[in-house]
């Protein structure tokens, strides 16, 4: 079996106030992604959200069900979002091939039975970043290339946060039940990925950091707005953000990250913002 999975239960803000650095990393950092020849999953109890990766090198990888789902098929009651951050590859879903280049995305709906991940070049394998959430309705499978994204140009170099937000798997581009995904690219000279910081009381979010140069890092800020904590994150690592936590980060150099979220609604702007002067 080429699938690995671990599970983490939800914790609240009161417990986290007493966590040391290692406890924070154990609960919220996802540092086992992008393993060769492996599908890796972290099953969280925040909105039953799953974050994972598939890196097919020598042979294709098949999406297998896991015991956590108690279902005969992985997508029997779920939807899946895929964004490729490696070499070109193909995702075959119920016999239909979807070719994904760098930073292309794919939505797979509920009741898609057979899913296979394949790289076009084993020396430069595809790196499929995966997010999955429970789904109540089957929506059509759809490829969303980087050119199809709805792009928001935000921030400024003067405030170190000039960036492009590529909205890819959101309801203005593709129909989903609750899953939303996209990627943000920071311009050279900018390091803040989200400012003002915000939280979503009605959904969770996961940040996956990539294009972080070797020997560089991102300081990810989390916690309640007046009780913040931080995690140092490296390339191709992710952070799980509970509904009660802010999520924002600053890098030692510009980088990119993928955001994925699920919860009560599909309103991208449903967030509570906190200005820098309000943070503690």
Automatic annotation (TrEMBL):
<dbReference type="InterPro" id="IPR027449">
    <property type="entry name" value="KduI_N"/>
</dbReference>
<comment type="function">
    <text>Catalyzes the isomerization of 5-dehydro-4-deoxy-D-glucuronate to 3-deoxy-D-glycero-2,5-hexodiulosonate.</text>
</comment>
<feature type="binding site">
    <location>
        <position position="200"/>
    </location>
    <ligand>
        <name>Zn(2+)</name>
    </ligand>
</feature>
<keyword id="KW-0479">Metal-binding</keyword>
<dbReference type="InterPro" id="IPR014710">
    <property type="entry name" value="RmlC-like_jellyroll"/>
</dbReference>
<dbReference type="Pfam" id="PF04962">
    <property type="entry name" value="KduI"/>
</dbReference>
<feature type="binding site">
    <location>
        <position position="247"/>
    </location>
    <ligand>
        <name>Zn(2+)</name>
    </ligand>
</feature>
<feature type="binding site">
    <location>
        <position position="205"/>
    </location>
    <ligand>
        <name>Zn(2+)</name>
    </ligand>
</feature>
<dbReference type="InterPro" id="IPR011051">
    <property type="entry name" value="RmlC_Cupin_sf"/>
</dbReference>
<dbReference type="GO" id="GO:0008697">
    <property type="term" value="F:4-deoxy-L-threo-5-hexosulose-uronate ketol-isomerase activity"/>
</dbReference>
<dbReference type="InterPro" id="IPR007045">
    <property type="entry name" value="KduI"/>
</dbReference>
<feature type="binding site">
    <location>
        <position position="198"/>
    </location>
    <ligand>
        <name>Zn(2+)</name>
    </ligand>
</feature>
<keyword id="KW-0413">Isomerase</keyword>
<keyword id="KW-0862">Zinc</keyword>
<comment type="similarity">
    <text>Belongs to the KduI family.</text>
</comment>
<protein>
    <recommendedName>
        <fullName>4-deoxy-L-threo-5-hexosulose-uronate ketol-isomerase</fullName>
        <ecNumber>5.3.1.17</ecNumber>
    </recommendedName>
</protein>
<dbReference type="InterPro" id="IPR021120">
    <property type="entry name" value="KduI/IolB_isomerase"/>
</dbReference>
<comment type="pathway">
    <text>Glycan metabolism; pectin degradation; 2-dehydro-3-deoxy-D-gluconate from pectin: step 4/5.</text>
</comment>
């Amino acid at each position: 079996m080429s699938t690995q999975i671990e599970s983490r239960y939800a914790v609240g803000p009161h417990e986290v106030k007493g966590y040391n650095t290692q406890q924070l990393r154990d609960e919220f950092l996802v540092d086992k992604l992008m393993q060769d020849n492996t599908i890796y999953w972290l099953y969280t109890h925040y909105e039953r959200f799953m974050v994972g990766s598939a890196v097919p090198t020598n042979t294709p990888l098949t999406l297998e069900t896991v015991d956590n789902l108690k279902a005969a098929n992985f997508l029997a009651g779920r939807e899946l979002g895929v964004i490729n951050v490696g070499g070109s590859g193909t995702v075959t879903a119920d016999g239909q091939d979807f070719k994904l280049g760098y930073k292309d995305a794919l939505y797979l709906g509920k009741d898609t039975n057979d899913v296979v991940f394949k790289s076009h070049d084993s020396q430069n394998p595809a790196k499929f970043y995966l997010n999955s959430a429970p789904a109540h309705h089957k929506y059509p499978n759809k490829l969303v290339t980087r050119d199809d994204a709805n792009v928001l140009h935000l921030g400024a170099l003067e405030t170190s946060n000039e960036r492009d937000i590529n909205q890819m798997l959101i309801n203005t581009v593709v129909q989903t039940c609750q899953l939303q995904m996209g990627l943000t690219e920071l311009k050279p000279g900018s390091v803040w990925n989200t400012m003002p910081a915000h939280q979503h009381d009605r959904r969770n979010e996961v940040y996956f950091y990539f294009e972080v140069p070797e020997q560089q890092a991102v300081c990810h800020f989390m916690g309640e707005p007046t009780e913040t904590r931080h995690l140092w994150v490296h390339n191709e690592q992710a952070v799980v953000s509970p509904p009660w936590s802010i999520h924002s980060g600053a890098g030692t150099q510009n980088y990119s990250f993928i955001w994925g979220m699920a919860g009560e609604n599909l309103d991208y702007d449903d967030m509570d913002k906190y200005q820098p002067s309000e943070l503690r």
